[in-house]
Design a protein that fits this description.
The chain is α/β, with parallel strands linked by helices. The chain has two domains: about 15-110 and about 235-270, 3-Layer(aba) Sandwich (Rossmann fold), CATH 3.40.50.1400; about 110-225, Rossmann fold (3-Layer(aba) Sandwich). Helix content is about 35%, strand content about 15%. The protein has eight helices and nine strands. It is elongated. The model is unreliable at about 1-10, about 130-140 and about 255-270 (pLDDT under 50). InterPro entries: CbiX-like (IPR002762), Sirohydro_Cobaltochel/CbiX (IPR050963). This is Sirohydrochlorin ferrochelatase. Keywords: Lyase, Metal-binding. GO terms for molecular function: lyase activity; metal ion binding.
Length: about 270
Amino acid sequence: MTPHRAALPKAGAAPTLVAVAHGSRDPRALRTVRELLARVRARRPGLDVRLGHIELNEPLLEETLARLRGAAVLVPLLLGRGHHVKVDLPDALAAAPHLRGLIAAPLGPHPLLATALHARLTEAGWPAPGHTAPGPTGHDTRTGSAVVLAAAGSRDPDSAAGTARTAALLTARLGGVPVLPAYASAAAPTVADAVAALRARGHRRIAVASYFTAPGRFAAQTAAAAPWIAAAPLGAHEAMARLVLHRYDEALRPGVTLRPPAPRHRTVLV
């Protein structure tokens, strides 16, 4: 079947941006996502921006889609191409036949994520560019420092490849500081194992960068394993708001290569 784009409204009627969050029992997660979407709305006044959750929080994605008419672009507030992006989101859109829709790429990997990760590390105590700060033993943190990029984890190899790419982008952003991916579940190494591996290579000041959109169980679990500083989740950083809109615009850009619709599924951005 020849790839094609779902029919969209006429010029002037922008499709609704549906931000798709995972959901969490941690009450801070919903507050954080709402703060992020407030930044998105501030950057694009007039754009209809809605929220839907895969699980655990309301509104659920199915409920959000049921209330919409016309066209929508689902923007996953997820950091890799795992099961949720490949299966759950297309299924949710297929279950809303009254909508014409597209699914944007997940947020990661992208250089804007490295920008936000660096900012969160700096807030936690990582030295700002051009400055030094004492580490736990009183030495310059630029000597013997390393970072563990703590992610949720997935059995999907595309998700792990995306996390590795983000680690490389963060290494470049930090001027060559080693960044090793680690996972809270479903993949290896764990944060503790990554810390041990970096120590075996001679690194003594090891920070944990939180590769999570919002606070939650996995973010707290990985931060607790930090031997030095632990950064906050990406949250409502301005770079995240820019990235959400970038993914939305990217999905609507003429000439984007789309995967042909599978049975019961709508068109998905590759």
